[in-house]
Amino acid sequence: MSTFLFDCDGVLWSGDTPLEGAPEALDMLRKKGKQIVFVTNNSTKSRVDCKKKFDTIGIAASVDEIFGSAYSTAIYISRILRLPRDEKVFVLGESGIEAELHSEGVSFIGGTDPDLRRDMQPSDYAGLASGAALDPAVTVVLVGLDFHTSYIKLATAFYYLRRPGVRFLATNVDATFPHSHGLFPGAGSISAPLITMIRSVNLELEPLPLGKPSQAMMDAIEGKFKLDRSRTCMVGDRLDTDIKFGIEGGLGGTLGVLTGVMREDDLLQAGKEGREKGPSAYLEKLGDLIAGA
Amino acid sequence: MSTFLFDCDGVLWSGDTPLEGAPEALDMLRKKGKQIVFVTNNSTKSRVDCKKKFDTIGIAASVDEIFGSAYSTAIYISRILRLPRDEKVFVLGESGIEAELHSEGVSFIGGTDPDLRRDMQPSDYAGLASGAALDPAVTVVLVGLDFHTSYIKLATAFYYLRRPGVRFLATNVDATFPHSHGLFPGAGSISAPLITMIRSVNLELEPLPLGKPSQAMMDAIEGKFKLDRSRTCMVGDRLDTDIKFGIEGGLGGTLGVLTGVMREDDLLQAGKEGREKGPSAYLEKLGDLIAGA
């Protein structure tokens, strides 16, 4: 293998704590001349924010090695959709998404706007129902992990989604995200109310996820890092995102670790369901790479 | 028919506006000596709150005629589950639920507690993941319509739900609720993130809904009002709650109105799918009862 793609949460750290041996394992790979790319679905952070997190945790990384779902989504909107300059994205998410959209020159509203962190007022109901409170330039609704999800945001996004032709994108659809050795609501839980509402009005609309396991993200990574897929290994803690991402991307290998979401039982179950579900190999923790080096 | 069960939102009013002719239609039924019960899935209001809403709108009603999903749920917890006094309910919802739980002597936490309307702090992640922030007395998670849904509430509810034996109840699971002639997130959209998270950890747990169309609510109404089901008619604007509630309850009739969620197309579709899906009759609006009287 010449390149290693690393998931971060649950592989390198949990919350604000580095996982045992993870920094040393990365150092070892670097010393062996391996290319390293950090591929994270955490959409709350821009690449620059993510670099700060690496610094805090004490893991060496450069901004150019970081590839997050917010960045992947911004690239998709600007370069694949080629969203016209006079159209806008309505964002449910944090500043990381805003920073990446901004870096790609994409116009947006919502996001961290404090006006969407307040209580609904009677005039809000009327404004949304009549459309007067909606921006006619919005043609995309983008949902990522939002620590400030609110009733008014969900109601507003629902009204945008019901307009003909509006696209529904998601940085990712992970139901949970790992923190402090536990699981917390992920981007897929932020979009869940919208999916419930949309189905109830018989609209056929599902969010298009642009983080792992979406191959749009793999294509973007391949384009940027010129990697040889057959000599690339994806390392992660989730079968349904990381491992699936590597397998569907035709990578040379996938490596599972048990320090995040995936448990040994899940691997056994995946093994029963066939080769195409489970990782090529797994370790209790990334630090064990050193023992096996 | 001797008794009429009325849904409120979308039948009598939309938001804060009475629907044309609805007050007059009710007056006419009262003059004819019909018993009237208002059966609402809006769990944000207690019966007393609901009476105030009737007063504001200008429709005559007494507290005893009102039967809401918050009340229905409180009765279920106190009289059917017989929750021990030292156990507690964790509430996602508004003051209406709290008032009805209080009236039935049920202990609870959460709800309108301002401490759950703030941002997550690093210590919250650790406290939830370790269990230190959880109240060991909580044995029920109850979700209703919550205009103040938040990340910390969803995360907390998720941790309670993962504890063995904890029950998952919902005042109702309507995806949307009508307001200002539009649709807004309903109780079913508030519980959607929890269902998404629970499924992702392979737990078999679905919320038990205690509002329409749950027959637990019909049984409670029958017990309180001593009604003759064969001479009772349910009037509503939703096929999947109101009309289903009446049909499955074996009522003498069901009457649909088109001033809320249901459209004429939905009725045609229900007609195709068989007698057991659609109402026995329908009107453009409740006010049309007068023309046909």
UniProtKB/TrEMBL annotation, chains A, B:
Mg(2+) binds at D7, D9, D237. Its cofactor is Mg(2+). Its EC number is 3.1.3.41. GO terms for molecular function: alkaline phosphatase activity; metal ion binding; phosphoglycolate phosphatase activity. One of its GO terms (cellular component) is cytoplasm. NCBIfam families: HAD-SF-IIA, PGP_euk. This is 4-nitrophenylphosphatase.
